[in-house]
Amino acid sequence: MTSLSIVAPQSMYFAEALALQSGASLSGYTLVYETYGTLNADASNAVLVCHALNASHHVAGAYVNEATGAKTMGWWDNMVGPGKPLDTNKFFVIGVNNPGSCFGSTGPMHINPASGKPYGADFPLLTVEDWVQAQARLADALGIHRFAAVMGGSLGGMQALAWSMMYPQRLAHCVVIASTPKLSAQNIAFNDVARQAILTDPDFHGGDFYAHGVVPKNGLRVARMVGHITYLSDDDMAEKFGRDLRGDGYQFGYGVDFEIESYLRYQGDKFSEYFDANTYLLITKALDYFDPARAFGGDLTKAFANIKAKFLIASFTTDWRFSPARSREIVQALVNNRQKVTYAEIDAPHGHDAFLLEDARYMNVVRAYYENVWDDVSAEVQS
Amino acid sequence: MTSLSIVAPQSMYFAEALALQSGASLSGYTLVYETYGTLNADASNAVLVCHALNASHHVAGAYVNEATGAKTMGWWDNMVGPGKPLDTNKFFVIGVNNPGSCFGSTGPMHINPASGKPYGADFPLLTVEDWVQAQARLADALGIHRFAAVMGGSLGGMQALAWSMMYPQRLAHCVVIASTPKLSAQNIAFNDVARQAILTDPDFHGGDFYAHGVVPKNGLRVARMVGHITYLSDDDMAEKFGRDLRGDGYQFGYGVDFEIESYLRYQGDKFSEYFDANTYLLITKALDYFDPARAFGGDLTKAFANIKAKFLIASFTTDWRFSPARSREIVQALVNNRQKVTYAEIDAPHGHDAFLLEDARYMNVVRAYYENVWDDVSAEVQS
């Protein structure tokens, strides 16, 4: 297996406004996306990969810095590529940056045509369903009426799930990894702490910090630190860091004593240097709001009634953010509807982050599932 | 059972400097404390109750606001009082505010005699063992050579445990509830997020905010919110708040959507109005540093070798901050030394906070244990 070599993003402008669930609309916007592999003649081998909070259209392959030669690999390069579980020798894979994100598609840091200034606080809140609508328009533009599969992990899995409900005819398979049908009170609580850290940072300026030439770095840093704790498992943290000290003995000050502090602060610092604060707020709200059963009195089985896709659901035993029990709720509702679902609960130590990491059993499950997806694609081509 | 009626704090000044584990020392300091019940003639019925992060010497009974008549009950009033599990009709109970705290004993907000200004950043870091040393001096001054029991929950339990190791002859019983022999990497991570929120608040001014007439409220607020999440169980939060909305439908903004947000923000706001930021930093560090096995190559059994006290250890099934597994480590090390220990693992839904809450099984276990403690006191008096 090799990675895709150098890849490059493309972009597409959509002149027609996107009507949003909030009642607002997003006028004239750009989506940045990448594709890997070749679309077949009847456009039946396309797979859409949806991204989570801190990711983008750059799913696989490498960006190369011309000056330094340094490579930036896609966030799911272990999953997507030639000979990989989602095999780009067979499938035409699309990664698209969601509107409101900060990696190229129209977002809060871009110019609001109505004011001539950055959107900032005026950028509308988008939901998972709004993103799916935007993705469907991109699919239309690329001539893809029906995906062989729509796939995602965590928040990306919510998008895949929303696809199966909103456009039941437009996907044959739905792959939902380390996700949940809705956030719990504890999930929302962690998101709100992160938001409050950003909202109360004096450098946030009510969302219009761009005009002040500052960034609410301290808030973003704390937000990322608290988020990061929830991505790792207690056991994994104990294994990797334990109570290991950075130096000799306790420092009796507020610098770094423990390796875990050093690691978390580094993650927070790094994140605060590239991630947009308004995007963080917006995406955590999209997470909180996702609740497809809500319109059906909380009945997920009813919410799933019109789903046509076949499913692969996967969860990880040590994921306490979106635990296996949450994935099983999805499985149960599909089973209640006599819909086709394969479920894998993978015994992995890495908590929520496991969905991004190499694990032979996990990769084999996804690989085997995509062999079935490919059989379906081949059968359709022949029929 | 009735509560103690109106109680009042006392204070004692210690002229002799307290030599600290850090190598620094705390010169001339005051401890604020309360006592309930009557010390018997041979001073054998005294019980010391140690407090956790956000508590004080005000363990039981009521403070009454003379103007309004409003009562402020002690933090463990359900546990300590006439006819209560720790019965003040029998025992002489002492609550003492630890130095470095913000409820009366000498702390960072008090005047540093060396500078004539508030200590602020110059207040030395104290450890659990330093607090125990200060408590022992208070016991000396009160004429108590040996406690019938030393008791605490969470961080208070660490102090009780430290008593049993530091002064093995000075306590007959040790009651350690919802505690741990040391913090895990995840525990430390949550503490460090809270500290970073405070340290990076511009109103913190490196710890010397008193001179600026401000308080790092935003940092304290976020610190408390993240802490509070770890005190509650996922299930309990789901039960109490779930995804209940405050108003009708989603607000599509960053105000309050969910009841859990409202609750947490309220807790954070309230806390930031009375708690001292330097105290928060100092106490979380004392938590992080507590690790009695560290001097014994990580061997808790060896650390416990000289313990003479009998133990009651209690934990709560849904406590994910200091889970039952952590209490069992203490139990196992005691058992390895053939020391006497009673262990209760209580099936309670309220997470770490359960140690402060009413629960018949929990209260009955503590009550029954103190009946044994009382038998020991009575036997000593007769012998």
Straight-line N-to-C gap of chain A: 31 Å
Structural category of chain A is alpha/beta
Largest sheet of chain A: 8 strands, mixed
Identify the strand order in the major beta sheet of chain A. 1-4-10-5-13-14-15-16
Low-confidence regions of chain A = none
Mean residue pLDDT of chain A? 96
| Helix content class of chain A | 25-40%
Secondary structure tally: strands of chain A = 16
**Beta-strand percentage of chain A?**
15-25%
Order of helices and strands of chain A: EEEEEEEEEEEEHEHEHHHHHHEHEH
Radius of gyration of chain A, in Å, reads: 21 Å
Principal-axis shape of chain A equals globular
Please provide a written account of the structure.
Two copies of one chain form a homodimer. By secondary structure, the first copy, chain A, is of the alpha/beta class. In chain A, about 35% of the residues lie in helices and about 20% in strands. An eight-stranded mixed beta sheet of chain A has the order 1-4-10-5-13-14-15-16, with helices on both faces. In chain A, strands 2-3 form a two-stranded antiparallel sheet. At the A-B interface, helix 3, helix 4, helix 5, helix 6 and helix 7 of A face helix 3, helix 4, helix 5, helix 6 and helix 7 of B.
